[in-house]
Amino acid sequence: MPYPEAVRFASATEADLQREEPPVKKLLCALALLAFVLPVQGAYVVRISDLQRSPTPPNPIRVAGRVTSTSPLKLNDGSGQITIAGATASLSDFLVVTGNWNGSVLTVTGEVDYALPPALTEMVYIPAGAFLMGNRGNEPYKPAAELPQHSVYLPDYWIGKHEVTRGEYRRFIEAGGYNNPAYWSSAGWSWKKTKTEPRYWAADQDWAASAGSSPQPFTQTDSHPVVAVSYYEAEAYCNWAGGHLPTEAQWEKAARWDGTPRVFPWGDVYDAEKYNNYYDHNAAGGGYTRYQTAPVGSYPDDASPYGLKDTAGNMREWCQDWYVSYPGSTSPFDYTGTYRVLRGGHWAYDSGVINMARCANRTNLVASYVAYTCGFRFAR
Predict the structure, then answer these.
(1) What per-residue string of b and e applies to 101-139 under the rule 16 or more CB within 10 Å gives b?
(2) What are the CA-CA distances from residue 308 to residues 69, 187, 251, 354 (Å)?
(3) DSSP strand E in 79-134: where?
(4) For the whole model, what pTM was predicted?
(5) Share of the chain above pLDDT 70, in %
(6) Could you give the angle at which helices 166-174 and 231-240 cross, rounded to 10 degrees?
(7) Same fold, 7-116 and 123-376
(8) 199 burial level (CB within 10 Å; 0-12, 13-18, 19+)
(9) Fewer beta carbons below 10 Å: N end or C end of the chain?
(10) What does pLDDT average to over the chain?
(11) What is the pLDDT of residues 189-203, one digit of tens each?
């Protein structure tokens, strides 16, 4: 829905995430602050859980929280949940509502402030403007699907500096979002069935053994990217977090554009040591010929002109687009309804490792596909 007078919180800094309080405690502290920054004559700002006690504050009262249901409209502030009458909103909106409480429903009598809660990850702002999308024509590989290079104009947007981490995805699970159909598409919810977490969610993994190689056990921390998420699982997280998967164009502009399109995020010359792949020697990714991801941001040279990290390696990333040919293609195709696009390279062995690291490279998979090479990035 539109936010004509909304307060839009775009990002939380990396330092903020490192010292962040538990989600409920942090939200309750924010609600206490609302009493001072959002005064309304005669209205008390209260925790939702306090409304279940007797006696309750006199009306009107003011509450704040995230929308967890649109019909009926429900808000959750981390301490409890309340039904709201007289307002409309979208899932994951953050509302501040003034109204009269009758013991079961809060009926809106004053203004409703719409806002987006801060993103869980550090975000990068990409200004509006045109860029050249697609293969330059002089790259090491030149698949027809990347041609022709063409100009695309994008309004401004925000995109995650890093791939979504296990720690961030854990928030989604612990908040109940993974098991709430409101955040899933109908196709996604049908696919999910009884799943309660992504595949390979356990911290201790050994993907070399599963590939028939000698064991290479390692431990995924909350700073590692979440892996083996389907398109549906990535989409549901983004809905819950108040954003969306980036489009192909958003991903590519953020990964390579500095007035001209780079072949790789760092420039035009390939270097296996700059990003997490099967052949680099960086200990953060396990070293040479290792089957594992690295904590996000572990490869400082895998950085785009805008400052995005890990677009060449670590995880290939779901985008929201269907896989279709570019305008003016001499080999047109359209897999709408069948294949979704992924962008970026990944850590695993592949004979086309140089090809995958290129920013113009396009991969496509069915939305239900899960593998330890697939992750995603958050956008707004």
Answers:
(1) beeeebbbebebbbbbbbbbbbbbebeeeebbbbbbeeb
(2) 33, 31, 10, 19
(3) 81-85, 94-101, 105-116, 123-126, 129-133
(4) 0.79
(5) 88
(6) 70
(7) no
(8) middle
(9) N
(10) 87
(11) 999 999 999 999 999
Average pLDDT over residues 313-334: 97
Could you tell me if 10 and 380 are in contact, meaning their C-beta atoms sit under 8 angstroms apart?
yes
Give the rounded distance of the alpha carbon of 344 from its chain centre. Answer: 15
Sign of CA dihedral 208, 214, 219, 223: negative
123-376: CATH class: alpha beta
- Provide the pLDDT for residue 45: 75
Token representation of residue 36: 């001072």
Q: What is the rounded distance in angstroms from the CA atom of residue 295 to the CA atom of residue 152? A: 32
* CA end-to-end distance (rounded Å), the chain: 13
**67 neighbors 41 (Cβ within 8 angstroms):** no
Question: At residue 183, what is the residue type?
Answer: Y
Contact 51, 64 (CB under 8 A): no
Please list, in sequence order, all residues whose beta carbon lies within 8 angstroms of the beta carbon of residue 72, skipping any fewer than 6 positions away.
83, 84, 85
pLDDT digits 0-9 by tens, 328-349: 999 999 999 999 999 999 998 7
Give me the residue label for tokens 């294949």.
339
Is the pLDDT assigned to residue 95 strictly greater than 60?
Answer: yes
pLDDT in tens, 7-55: 333 334 334 334 344 444 444 444 444 433 344 445 667 888 888 776 7
> pLDDT grade, residue 6 (50/70/90)?
very low
Task: Give CATH for domain 7-116.
Answer: 2.40.50.140
